[in-house]
Amino acid sequence: METSVHIAVDLGAESGRVIVGVLSDGKLSLEEVHRFRHLPVPTPAGLCWDFTGLWRSILDGLRAACDYAAEAGLRPESVGVDTWGVDWALVSESGVMLGLPRCYRDPVFADAFERVQGRIGARAIYEATGIQHMPLNSLYQYVSRVEQDDAVFEESCRLMFMPDLFHWLLTGVMTTERTNASTSQMVDVRTGDWSHALLERLGLPTGPLGSMIDAGDTVGTLTASVAQATGLDPSVRVVAPPTHDTASAVAAVPADPGTNWCYLSSGTWSLLGAELDSPCITDASAAAPFTNELGVCGTVRFLKNIGGLWLVQEVRRQLEREGQTFNYIELEDLAAAADPLPTLMPVNDPVFAEPGGMIDKIRAYAAQTSQPVPESIGAVVRCTFESLALEYKATLERLGDVLGRSFDVLHIVGGGGRNILLNEMTTAATGCVMVAGPDEATAMGNLLTQAMGTGHLEDLAAMRRVVNATVSPRRYEPEAGIRGDWSAAAERYASLPACVRN
Ligand code: ADP
Ligand code: LRH
């Protein structure tokens, strides 16, 4: 089999990486050539992404990829960028960015969310888009932008999501890739096109919303200035991966087609769900709520967003601000040594989704609900892990109920799969066999879709065969999980009250 070389730029909300992938003999080898941490920045316009900082880091990463390839005698054929969902910016026809991309964590979007839901009803929006209700969805950011700054829409401009923006900087070509656009709650998941009816009902301009491309499509080739800055050949193609990171991660689940499998994409967010052939939009899916995002090769990602390891990232950041530095392995060790199941927290509560003061918020919640207040760092981190495991259990049960199916195996992919303690808690709490890995599923899904787009792989099944041939996932049996009274804890978890704002 021929060898092909692709470069993935994978931006998570906490860190970004540039990875060179070599597809050869049915296996994909990965070389991480650049990794960087990043954070949103406060501005008078609200919390924004450090866009130029990210672009600088991408260029540095591509330069490192070029050097690595040259040394190894490899010729990169394509590049593709994936990022988190929902965030976007407007660009004028002449190529001027009209403001920085806002960060979905800015609590300000909650106002627009309440107003829009009040005006046309949550169910009508779900019916039109198949997307679960969350203030972070692009729809509410778009509503607030139109309300605050409608003059900007008088000129012709184009709305592009984060990965589309970087593809534009790489090639000069403006595109909108479908998997990421589908997370906006502005797309009709049944047609895969913008939900014009919903947008018109809300009086929103549709001019900035361009036609869509699919994962695997070519965006263009590198501009001369990018080629010069990175050393890459200007003929290198930019091929859209599933630009939504979760879509890339799900594409790389090493699923055995003969099993009833579901997945947990575990990183900043935990996305737990199943892959479907067509959307599921019912009363039960709306109540759960489960979202229908579009995946690679016409699949639907039927899943729920769960607070995720953001909770631990924020604990780590608070400690860092207070002068104490820990890595994730150290935090896991401290949690392992803490007592089991004393205190639980509702991991999806909006208070915990906002940046800042996570340790204080967890302790205040424990006090508010008369649970033991976690004093040590280990106890705080353990509370987040155990609560996540219980949320996974509840979501898995609801997933089975809504789809009328049971699952043989839960595949966990993403960086969170490295957390052995959380994996053991999850398998014990859910009673489900878990298979963890690949940890770099997002980069793998990104690279393999580029390989498909450049004609080296046929379809999604071929991509998953490569993942299966490449990785040796770790298997967790429920009996070997962390002991504890998980049934009693699940009842306590189900009756936790909402967090009261101070
Ligand atoms: P993102 O969604 O931001 O791309 P990743 O898939 O990179 O996230 O996963 C990042 C998370 O994985 C971290 O927040 C951390 O909780 C977890 N993680 C990463 N490395 C380890 C490790 N060695 N041990 C335990 N957890 C880890
Ligand atoms: C995970 C993720 C998730 C989105 C959120 C904004 O990184 O893309 O799927 O809902 O970020």
UniProtKB/TrEMBL annotation:
Kinase in keyword set: yes
Pfam families: FGGY_C, FGGY_N
GO aspect biological process, one term: glycerol metabolic process
UniProt GO cellular component terms: cytosol
Claim: Disulfide bond is one of the keywords in the record: yes
Segments crossing the lipid bilayer: none
Top-level EC class: transferase
Homology family: Belongs to the FGGY kinase family.
Matches recorded under PANTHER family: L-RHAMNULOKINASE (PTHR10196:SF93), SUGAR KINASE (PTHR10196)
Protein name: Rhamnulokinase
Organism of origin: Mucisphaera calidilacus
Gene: rhaB
